[in-house]
Amino acid sequence: GFITVQIYTPLVFNYFGSISAGKVGLTMSLSTAFFSIGNIWFQAIAPKFNIISSLKKWNELDLLFNKTLKKTVITYSIICCSFVAFYFILDLTDLNLILKRFLPLTGIVILLLHWLIQNYIYAYAFYLRSHKKEPFLNLTIINLFVFIFVTVLVVTYLPVSYIFLGQLLTSLIMLPLAIKIFKTKKEKWCI
């Protein structure tokens, strides 16, 4: 949510300094853009998806959902793999000074993996919200507390390149819970 994204730059500024805060901010902006581009597929079908859901055409809804999730993950993965390849190529040239404005590749990959998992969680929430209900509120609250706890540990004991480990670990914890909520609610609501 909003807090988990907005807390990083000031937190890093406080613990690691302004240069690291700038690297974190730029890395977050880039990865969030990748996530948004990947999720454009869901945004494009939102009206159609909600109409199909309101008409209770569950098989059609499932087909559209699975097709859209596949396109989202493929798009996101292609963007991320292209960026990592570009990173390696740039690192071999005289233009590698641009890379110094970002976190090291370890931090970037941690964040990109987090957003990959978030693609799935977002998709499950999107599907269930088409029923005009919000089944992920409790999960979001749990996510916030786990995130704060893990992030405090990370800034205390690890270098700045691991700052997004809290988000990745939180996503890894939340994914099975999101799948369980998705399956349970879908079974209950789509009859």
Write a structural description.
This protein is an all-alpha fold and 191 residues long. The chain is 81% helix and 0% strand. It contains eight helices and no strands. The protein has helices spanning 2-6, 8-16, 18-38, 40-54, 58-91, 105-129, 137-157, 165-189. Helix 4 (40-54) runs antiparallel to helix 5 (58-91). The two termini are 31 Å apart. The relative contact order is 0.14.
* Major sheet characteristics: none
How far apart, in Å, are the first and last alpha carbons? 31 Å
Number of strands: 0
> Residue ranges: pLDDT <50 for 5 or more in a row?
none
Q: In summary, what is this structure?
A:
With 191 residues, the chain is mostly helical.
Which properties best describe this structure?
8 helices; 191 residues; mainly alpha; globular; 81% helix
